[in-house]
Amino acid sequence: MTSFTFSRRVAWPALVASGLWLAGCAQTPPYERPTMDIPAAYKEQAAAQAQGIWKPAQPQASTALPETWWTVYGDAVLDRLQQQAEAHSPTLAQSAARLRAAQAAVTSSGAAALPIVGANASSSRARSGTQLSSQGDGSSTARISTSHSLGLTASWELDLWGRISAGVSAAQASAQASADDLAAARLSLQAAVAQTYFSLRAAEAQAALLGETLKAYDRSWELTRNRQAAGVASSADVAQAEAQYKSTQVQLLEAQTTRSQLEHALAALLGQAPAAFALEPTAALPAPADVPRVLPSDLLQRRPDIAAAERRVAAANAQIGVARAAYFPTLTLSAAGGYRGAPLADLFSAPNLFWSLGPALAASIFDGGARSAAVETARANHAQVTAAYRQTVLTALQEVEDNLTAAAALAQEEQLQREATAAAQRALDVVENQYRAGTVGYLNVLAAQTTVLSSQRSLIDVKSRRLTAVNALLKNVAGRWEALPPA
């Protein structure tokens, strides 16, 4: 690093004029949003497919997110759980702390554009050298001096090449990305709480169904024992009834275990220890929200993860300017003034006054290619985050399409499963009457009962999967079905 200091004889008007001219030579490339088109409608919604219009993605600010999107389920318990998660989740606390750090970085980077003013004070007493006495007696003398100083210093680096402003822009974009990360973490947490809650209620419904089925199987087992005692049923029938009852008990224990584990997972999402959390069983699954026939793709622009990815591209673009500016010298204006003298009592007298004022120009002459490597690194990072942004948009499109397909298919599947369950129950009623009349064997009853239980459990599973798909779809479109308001 070579440094040149100008004296007061430098032509200040010329220096200022050149500085103003150089100040316009910012090294940051003009920022352009990454080109990434999204369709006006989704492939899986045939009603809107004919539009065939594509438009560039324009990510929206995280403040556009609805705060209580889960209220579409109309479940007061879920509302309460979401409030607890918002207040106590360690995941949100981490994201909020990262946002505060990013905001502090913005303040820190902006401070570099302002003058730095400092104060100093010192007092010293020193002994310098020894010399023989002139009287020739072999004695020596020493010089002792006292010095006091009090002053102010100031320095200001002129941002001729936009290095400081580019750093501020990068910090601001990073802080905005952190704000969007916080919104994304909140949305993910809310969706996870809702999904875990739905799975827990589904496990409860399975357990309740198995409990009621056990009662029916116990009556069948008792009926078979009575028929054996009357000589109209075999011991094999009794053994089959017992096996069916016992295997259903195993399934009930599995459902209860699943419910307990989901309750533990829900407690962790709420920031509580499992031992301190309990949820009253209801075995009631909320109804899934109705998916509109036409879902505007504009909703994708609300996703905070897309907005965060775009802000990281802006930050990387600004970092290219920071790296380029390192090729050019830095100009710093410095000033100092104060009092310096030996007697403390006369320190603030005119003879002890000192001051200095002048610019300093510093530039690196040889660095072994470090600056070139820094610029190339900044460009490569920009290319990386641009590709990451595009991948985020593509992944978001895939997620919406997947869950649109799943939600539509599962709605039809639920209706068909209801019809299958009703048919299985009718068949069981007929077979049980025939068994009591002695026209069929118990194996027919066993098969019919198994079919009914399997069908009923499948219906609960389809309801749960449909809730999962709709919940994921709401998360994919940042929590609401409505289109974006006009810009």
TrEMBL record:
It is a lipid-anchor. Residues 125-144 are annotated as: Disordered. Residues 394-426 form a coiled coil. GO terms for cellular component: plasma membrane. It is found in: Cell membrane. Residues 1-23 form the signal peptide. It comes from the Bacteria. GO terms for molecular function: efflux transmembrane transporter activity. InterPro entries: MdtP/NodT-like, OMP_efflux. Residues 129-144 have a biased composition (Polar residues). Keywords: Coiled coil, Lipoprotein, Membrane, Palmitate, Signal, Transmembrane, Transmembrane beta strand. The keyword Coiled coil applies. Belongs to the outer membrane factor (OMF) (TC 1.B.17) family. This is NodT family efflux transporter outer membrane factor (OMF) lipoprotein. The lineage of its organism: Bacteria, Pseudomonadati, Pseudomonadota, Betaproteobacteria, Burkholderiales.
